[in-house]
Amino acid sequence: MATPSQSVGLKKLIAKLDSPEKVQHWLRTLEYNKHETMRTLPEVVRQHRAHCLEAAMAAAAILGHHGYPPIILDMESADLLDHTLFVYRRRGRWGSVGKSRDVGLDGRKPVFKTIRALVMSYAAPYIDERACITQYGLLDLRTLSDQRWSSSYRNVWYVEEALRHVPHSQLHLMNTFVTKWRQKYLTYKKHHPGMQPDYFPAQGSWL
């Protein structure tokens, strides 16, 4: 359980992070969590680290206090290493907030007309030797019977399980598109081992 001072600190953090932009900036200050956990916002704050789903849930918990519905986007990959983000709408356009170890997989400004268009903005940055987005789906966390995903001090594995069962739409990428970006990735890594590529288009839409 949280101490009184921790509870006060959490409330102040939530009050301060009143926009997707501010939450995205805060997520970048956290370490990436490489461990098998499913922590909620209080533990993410205490540990000062999160993986992509923990970051998405933390964003949903924070921004829920500021009127944003708690919706999670799940992107499935050919190499089974999925990526999740919090998604939001502003003036009818979709954006996202997230955390990743890879360049280009964090948040997006609310400039996309559809969820598919938002997902497509991640298509090129997602591609490496094996990874490639194959489908995507949305989970509204309000539909879960257990609503402790925002405040529990235990791992909430049921959120990950729920993401596996939400309907997903196929993302059919052209073979030429995948081949182009995979070759670009392999060439980059050959000449810059240990570095992250940062040659992706439309970076003006990144949050």
Short description:
By secondary structure, this protein is α+β, with helices and mostly antiparallel strands.
Strand order of the largest sheet: 6-5-4-3-7-8
Q: Could you say what the CATH topology is called?
A: C8orf32 fold
* Apparent shape: globular
How much of the polypeptide forms β-strand, as a percent range?
15-25%
Low-confidence stretches: none
Question: Count the helices. How many?
Answer: 8
Major sheet description: 6 strands, antiparallel
The string of secondary-structure elements, in order, is HHEHEHEEEEHHEHEH
Helix content bin: 25-40%
Molecular structure report:
- The longest helix is centred in the last third of the chain and has 17 residues, at 175-191.
- It is built from 8 helices and 8 strands, in the order ααβαβαββββααβαβα.
- The chain has a single domain (4-205), classed as C8orf32 fold.
- The relative contact order is 0.15.
- The chain is α+β, with helices and mostly antiparallel strands and 207 residues long.
- The chain has a 6-stranded antiparallel sheet.
- The two termini are 33 Å apart.
